[in-house]
Amino acid sequence: MRSLASIVALSLAVAMVPPITAQEGRKQFRKRDSDKAPAKSAIFNDAPTGEQVAFFEKKIRPVLIENCYSCHSSEKPDKIKGGLALDTRDGLRTGGDSGPAILAGNAAKSILVKAIHQSNDDLKMPPKQKLTDQAIADIERWISIGAPDPRTGAKLAIKNEIDIEKGRQFWAYQLPKDSTPSVKDAKWAESKVDQFVLAGLEAKGLKPVKDAEGRTLVRRLHLDLIGLPPTAEVAEQFVFDYDRDPEAALTKLVDTLLVSPHFGERWGRHWLDVARFAESSGKTVNFNYPHAWRYRDYVIAAYNDDKPFDLFVKEQLAGDLMPARGDAQIAERAIATGFLQVGSRNLNERNRLQYELDVADEQIDTVTQAFLGQTAACARCHDHKFDAIPAKDYYALAGIFRSTENCYGTVRFVQANQPSQLIKLPQGSAPTVIEPLSAAERTRIEKTIADLRESIRNQPDRQRNIFAFAQVALNTARLDLFEKDGTPKVLAMGARDKFRTVESAVYARGEPDKPGEVVPRGVLQVVGGPKVSFSRRSSGRLQLAEWIASPENPLTARVYVNRVWLHLFGRGLVATPDNFGTTGTLPSNQALLDHLAIQFTNDGWSTKKLIRSLVLSHAYRLSTTHDATNFTADPDNTLVWRMTPTRLDAEVVRDSILAVSGQLKSDSPNGSVLAKSGEGPTSRRGLSSRTDTDPDDPHRSIYLPVVRESLPEVMSLFDAADPNMVIGERPSTTVPSQSLFMMNNPFVIRSAEAAAEKLIAGSSSDTERIRQAYLQFFGRVPSEKELAKAEKFLTSYPTQSRYRAKKEPWIALCQAMFGSAEFLIRN
Questions:
Q1: Nearest C-alpha neighbor of 445 from the set 412, 413, 418, 480
Q2: In terms of Cα–Cα distance, which of 789, 754, 760 is closest to 772?
C-alpha cells in the first residue's frame, strides 16, 4: 500500500510545483554551486560578497590566528616554518617550500587541507592538536568557493584611516524622512503603503496584477499571521463574507488573528531565528541549556502582548538593570536577557581570556546584526574593510560585554571547562518544570556523590576517575536545582553586571596575547544617534540598549520593519535583512522603508499595528499571477507587482500537517524536553533517535527541542533556521529528500491515517469527503476535473487488507495531498 501511495504523492507533488521565480532560481543555483567543488581551473574569488567576507572573518581567520600564526606569520620571518606565511592573502596563495597552500576551488588537492586532515605523518598541522571537524569543514567550504580573502597582501595592522563623517553619508546612517508619493491610479492606492508601492511601479511603467480571490486570502492570512491553515468552516465563512463586503471581512479576520495566542507562536519563531535560539551550546562539546525555554516563552508572550519593540530591545539587553514592579516583572526582565546567553559557546576552551573574548564577539555579532543590521564583528581583527567601523569601536562594545557576567549554566565536565552560574529568580515568580525533591531522593543522591568521591580517592585508573568526576558533577548539578527543603529553585539563563567594569584593549588580529591601546566603552560612531555616557558602576548594557532603542537611531526601526515586510511579502525592501552596511543591498523602495520606520515609532513601536497596516493594504491582496511584461522588467518582484509565492517554513509544514489531521494540541507545554533531562552533554538528554527524527509531540513545532547539530528531520529538511547564527531570512530549497520525507516518514504516514479517519467519520458521501479534504488541505473546493480524478483514484485503489479496504484509499489520497506543492506553498 505504501509504495503506491508514495508514487501518487510524488506524482502530485511534481505535477503541482509552480514555476520557480528568478530570485528562487538564483538562490538555489548559488547553494548548489557552493556545495560542490568547482573545476580545477577555478580562480581565486577576489570580489567576495558581504556574506563571503563575513564567513572568512568569523570562520576562517580566527582558526588561522589561533592555530597557525605562531609558526606561519610574516611578523617573524626568521622563524617562519616551511617558508609559509598564513597571515596575509599573498602568503597563503603563494605558499612556501611545498608550493601554493591552497588551490582555489579544489579543497581536496590543497596542501593546507591535506595538512589539517593529518592523514600523512609528514604533513600534520597544527602539530599539537588536530582542528575540530567543524573547522576543517569550514576551511574546505571556503576553498571551494574560491577562498575569498579581504586581507591585503602586506602585513596586516590595525588601521586608523576610517573617515567616520564620510561613512555617515551612506543612506542607512541618515535619519528616515517621510514623504508623500504621487501616483496616477489613485483609486488603486488605498493606503499610503499602496501609494509608495504604486509610485515605484509607475516609475518603471508597470502595473500590479489582479487581486487574489477570497479563498487565497483567507489561507494566506492564516499562514502569515498564526502559521496554521484555516479550518474548512472558517474558510467557507470568510468567502461568504468577503463576497458581500471585502473590507469588512478582511478587517474582521485580521483583528481576530492578531489576538489569537497562535500569533505569538508564529511571530515569536521569526524572532528566535534572529536571536539564534537553541537549547544547547553546540561547538565541539555540545551541552544542554535546560533553562533556555524560559527565553522562548518570553518571546512568544512578548509578541502576543504586543510589547513595544523598543522595550523588547531594552529588556533583552539590560532587563536586569531596569526598574521592575514586583517579582513577576523582575523575573520577566531577567529572563529576557537570556537573549545574550542562548548562543553557541566553545566550552572546551581552556584559556579564560580567549573564551571571554570569543563570547563577547558572539554577542557583539548577534546584537549588531539583530537590531542594527551591521556586521560589526568583522572589526575584531582589524578595521572593517567596507563599513566605517574601526576596530576601536568593536572593542568599545567588547568592554560592555566583558563587563557583563554571563549566566548560562552547564557543569564542569570532560572537555567542558567553562561552566557558569544561573540567575536565581524570586520563588513563585515563574513556573518550574521539575517535581520537588524528596528527602529520600536527596539522601540517595548525596550517597552516590560520596561513593563516587571515595572511589576516586582509591582508584589509580585515571580514565575511570574522569568518568567518576563527571558523575559527581551531574549529581551535584541535580542537587543544585533544589532548596534544602526540596522545593525546586526558579532558575533562568540571563545576564548581570560584574563587580568591576572592563575597558577593553584593542587586540591585534583578535589575539589575546597581543593587547594594544585600551579604549573606553562606547557605541558605533558611524551610526550616530543620541550621545551615550558610561558609568564605572555598571556595564553599560542599559546605555547601549537605550541608544539602540532610541528614535534617533537611524537603523533600529528600519531594520525591524524590513524584517516584518520580508515575512509578509517574501522579500525585504532591503534584501539583506541582517546587513544594512555597504556590502548589503540598497533598498528597493527607500521612501516606503522610511515611511514605515517613522510610522512604526509614531505608533509606539507596535508590531501588531505595523502588521495590520501591511496586511490590509491593497499590495498584500495581490495574486501570485505571472505577468510576462512585469517579469521581464522586474524578475525578482522587488517592486511588488504581485505577491511572491513562498514555500512554507519547516515549522508551518509540520504544524499544518498536525492541524489538518486533527492531531494538533493547541495549548502550550510547560518547559521543554531539555529542561526535564537537566544539565550535561546533549547525548544524555533522554531523547530517542525516533524522537530526534520523528517528533511525536502534538504541540506546535516552536516547542520542539532545539539541539544544535541535531534538529529533527522535518526541521532540517525544510530549511529551519541554523541556530548557530543570526538568520533574518531562511533559505528555501527544493530537493528530492523533501519529497521522500513526505512519502516515507512515519510522522507523515500517521498523520495521513488520522486525516483519513477524520474525513471518513465526517461524512458518508465520497463526494462530500473529497470536497472537505480540499477545503481542509488547500482552503478551496475541488474543480469538477479534480473531483472526478479523486473519485476514480479511490475506486481503483488496490487495497491489501479487506479489513482496511475502506480506509486505505483515503490514507493514500491524504498522503498525496500532504506531499503536493499546493499544500507546501503559500500563494
A1: 480
A2: 760
From the list 248, 215, 217, 247, the residue with the least C-alpha distance to 232 is 215
**Helix 590-602 to helix 556-569 angle, to the nearest 10 degrees?**
110
Q: What is the pLDDT of residues 67-110, one digit of tens each?
A: 887 788 776 666 677 778 888 888 888 877 777 888 888 888 88
Separation between Cα atoms, residue 590 and residue 207, nearest integer Å: 19
Distance (Å, rounded) from C-alpha 637 to C-alpha 634?
5
Distance CA(513)–CA(690), nearest Å, equals 47
**Full DSSP string of 578-594:** T--STTSPPPS-HHHHH
**179: buried, middle or exposed (CB in 10 Å: 19+, 13-18, 0-12)?**
middle
Handedness of CA 217, 218, 221, 222 (dihedral sign): negative
In the chain, DSSP finds a helix count (H) and a strand count (E) of 35, 8
Nearest to 291 by CA among 418, 145, 421: 421
Burial class (CB in 10 A: 0-12, 13-18, 19+), 456: middle
Q: Which residues pair with 288 in a beta bridge?
A: 280
C-alpha cell at 746: 512515519
Name which of 499, 535, 503 is nearest 519 in CA terms. Answer: 503
Q: Among candidates 83, 59, 75, 73, which has minimal Cα distance to 131?
A: 59
Distance, in Å, from the CA atom of 534 to the CA atom of 63, rounded to the nearest integer, reads: 33
pLDDT in tens, 670-696: 999 889 888 999 876 555 444 555 677
- Contacts for 468 with CB less than 8 Å, ≥ 6 apart: 452, 453, 455, 456, 459
CA distances (Å), origin 462, targets 381, 484, 517, 622: 40, 33, 44, 69
Contacts of residue 661, defined as CB under 8 A and 6 or more positions apart, other chains included, come to 751, 752, 754, 755, 758, 814
